[in-house]
Amino acid sequence: MNEVQPIRTDAENAIISRFPDFAKKQSHWGGAEIARERTAAFEILKSKGLPSRRVEEWKYTDLRAMLRDMPSPAEAPSREAVEVAAREKSAIDLSDAFKFLFVNGKNFAMVKAEGFEIYSLANGDKLPKAVSDTLARERKHALNAAVALNTAFMTDATIIHVPAGKRLARPIHLAFRHEGKIAQSSFPRVLIVVEQGASVTIVETQDGPAGVAYFDNALVEIDAGDQAEVNHVRHNNAGGASITLSTLAVRTGHGTKFSSFAMATGGAISRHQMFFDLAGKNAELSVQGATLLRGKQHADNTMIADHMAGGCVGRQLFKTVLDDNSRGVFQGLIIVRPHSQKTDGKMMSSALLLGDDAEMDNKPELEIFADDVQCGHGATVGALDENLLFYLRARGIPRREAEILLIESFVGDAIQHIENERVREALMSCASAWLAERS
Amino acid sequence: MPAVQETVERVRSIDVDQYKYGFETNIESVKAPKGLDESTVRFISAKKNEPSWLLEWRLEAFKRWKTMTEPDWARVHYPKIDYQDLYYYSAPKNTPGPSSLDEVDPELLKTYEKLGIPLREQEILAGVRGSSRVAVDAVFDSVSVVTTFKDELKKAGVIFGSISEAVREHPELVRKYLGTVVPSSDNFFATLNSAVFSDGSFVYIPKGVRCPMELSTYFRINERNTGQFERTLIIAEEGAYVSYLEGCTAPQRDENQLHAAVVELVALDNAEIKYSTVQNWYPGDKQGKGGVYNFVTKRGDCRGRGSKISWTQVETGSAITWKYPSCILRGDNSQGEFYSIAISNGYQQVDSGTKMIHLGKNTTSRIVSKGIAAGHSNNTYRGLVSAHRKATGARNFTNCDSLLVGDKCGAHTTPYIEAKNSKSVFEHEATTSKISEDMLFYCRQRGLTQEEAVALVVNGFVKDVLQHLPMEFAVEAQKLIAISLEGSVG
Amino acid sequence: MLEIKNLHAEVADRKILQGLDLKVKAGEVHAIMGPNGSGKSTLSYVLAGKDGYTVTEGSVQYQGEDLLALQPEERAAKGVFLAFQYPIEIPGVTTMTFLRTAVNSVRKQRGEAELSTPDFLRFVREKAKDLNIDQEMLKRAVNVGFSGGEKKRNEILQMALLEPKLCVLDETDSGLDIDALKVVADGVNALRSPQRSMIVITHYQRLLDYIVPDVVHIMAKGRIVRTGGPDLAKELEERGYAGIETEIA
User: Fold this and answer.
1) pLDDT over 80 at B11, yes or no
2) Which residues does chain B have within 8 Å of residue C111's beta carbon, measured at their own beta carbons?
């Protein structure tokens, strides 16, 4: 369509004006291939601008209107800032984890890798074949605005390689932390290649200072090989004035077991995108989310499960609790390609509206091109059940506690799917803490 | 279908000469020149002797339309429509139709036979030359089934006739309500319709009146290269009730025919409108050639407190269906309903659903959609349920199920559920599955053929919706479902 | 009536029937007994023509015709009736509609006139009464929410209405209490005639106290391993399948 381009926003102008210098600065690494990808991503942003609500995928999160300005890309943090960041704890902080500390988007991992390997694309490390094969594969979501923005402004890609058959007992922790009082943009990028039969637990946390309007846009790609087992958990606890975009792009193989959990309590505006390509047969995909918002927070969970091969089982359960004027968004799409017979996909999104002016927008979609399938989705929106509340109060439980009890069980329904007990408990107490703060 | 059959019978009993508002005598030779510009709009308005306000309204719409682009968000694909290559005004043509049944395509006759229409009616439907053809065609294009019952309806105070007639006889009513539910700027196709609408039905039920009979209109596209743009307006005053039926067919044509209708319903305090459609436009041949492009805007406005609008549709025809009968639940305690069966086979593309816009307090809506995709077709349910900030106590229950028959088709569900206040309760569930092999085998073991078995199982699948159709429609809709699914299994 | 020779059949690449021979004459009632997994239900599905049941070897002659060449509905029209072990539920389709469609389809295929609605209703009511079937049941969707006994009686009602020549009763006794079993057995016995043959497949001897067979076969590993009179069933009851199997081995 050759439509009239609307006037560019400050953020769009910032992207366009900053890119040439930025790209030049980064040209020392990655060679022609990365430069080409970077330019292509920029061209998309330049020609299309940031997506507004008129773009179907961004209907409920109008990035163009929300990201009024894009802060300048983060400079390398001071040594002091890194030291401060290293001392701080996230809601999920596992003492035995392999911790990768990203300060303002830059990786300061001091971990000693055991049973896996770490590479940096910017350092020009020599990559094992499994990794370079994955990198060579066409990126299906390259056109997505958040992904393109990350690609245009990436400063490195941290690569974690878990060789075939390795079963890591200790989790890998990607701790994304924003430091400092200056609003900056960061574009961390991680690729995790889990080869055939390997297993790993990955925890992502995202923290930052309150009151700083920083912008974070992380891309985590996970390639899980045949029969691999990956448990992924993410907690967005970003600073209250921040805008965060995050993308998890996953590709599974034959018989892979993949689970992902996304918890969001932080950030002024956040959008978490989950793209699952079920490329091999008989994979199991289990995705849950718990989002707890208050004030004017806005959080968007957008998920696509693309059943490219048959026999896969997909389960998605998203719970959203909205207080005050907050707004929750769930967009879920199950695609079943032709020949992906025997697909079994179920998706559910439930929202509890606590605040009178809270808003929930649900768009659960099915796109089905194979006939021998069992797919379904459900969506519910409503306030706390007054009958249940009354029942609890009649048993002597005060209203506030009764509410807490009901809300806890509502989100607990999703959280209980997390396999790692310590992570599960950490997120459960995180939910309890959120409830305790409720006025 | 009996509704059709009755229509034909009633029409036959009417003397053509009594059709006093008919333009049939001169209309047969009258055709606006091909293409669309301001003069086409003026031509149509002049032909219908319309008052100047209506002409202005049309011209305004036309001006707007020129600035609009065709929507592309639906899951339908078709070659670009050349809007200058269509006739926007024409009447039953003078060129000879088939002179006997032998010249009529046997496939078409077979369909009518299956629909239970006796041979005499078949001749009429197939457009065989004969004395009653003109009257019947005129009827198909617009109005006068009612003439038969006009006295009875008049006694009750009900106005039922063509919208052209209403413009002449009840201009104040038309002017008051036309375009108030679907504004002339609403969407590309509705705006086009506002500029060039040819005719359609008008219903007015006065305060407290329960319409003594089912009203029905039967639409049919006859002409080649002709766009069909009906406009229907139904108003139920306080406490009134009406049930209205609409049936559609079109002859087989190699080229695609455009149909862009607008239906507006207005229900005032405690009024109820029940609107049922059995849409069986020509779907195209087995290779997907030809067929009707059905881009329809249907919307009901529950304007009054405690009003109710209920849409029931059985969509089996058209090459492309783009249709979202909706309810604006403006009045407190108003109710909206949408019951739909959409069957696609061959290369048909259906993108249909509803919008339930909750604006008033304690409004309720219910959506039951059953999609069946067979052959190489694609069948999409697209729906919106939204509750405004002030629509406290809004409730919606949505159930949309899809059934796939064969592995070359697609079934899709795209619901938008938007709750903007905490006192609303929305529940939505959707499933997609294959037609059960076990059920088919069980039926075949009892002697049903594969096709009979499919039809039986599908009829069971859609039962929840069928029961909302008026009885005589329901029986015929069942047959239609069976016919639509023919050749879907092999 | 029916002659099965050296029948081999597979389901999902698993060999189930492995050289089964069986001959049933008109008017005879044969019981086929066997332990779980011996292939009893597979035999019934092969005779009815279910998809996914592939015959790899052997033949089935039914009234001098190659039964395996026919579609399921053609077999039904020619008089092959399978009473399902687990009757299928068809939501939204009333039992009455289903019965009428089935009866008229079969009549059409047999070159008989379709029954008018009043005639059909009379026909059904009469048969239903014999089987102690409540009229209310006929208004409900096919088998949906039916108790085990209701489902089996519904099967026998269909058998009565379709007037088959060869009835295959697949574990008709499963899930029935003794009273329901009697009703079902009475229904079946009422349909016994010199022109009609029956194959009664069962795991337990119990059913055969009520439907007394002319011939009893014991099936194991996809073949008939022993054939005898009604006494064979009694013997089986006393010694169990294990005993019989050891003897064969």
Assistant:
1) no
2) none
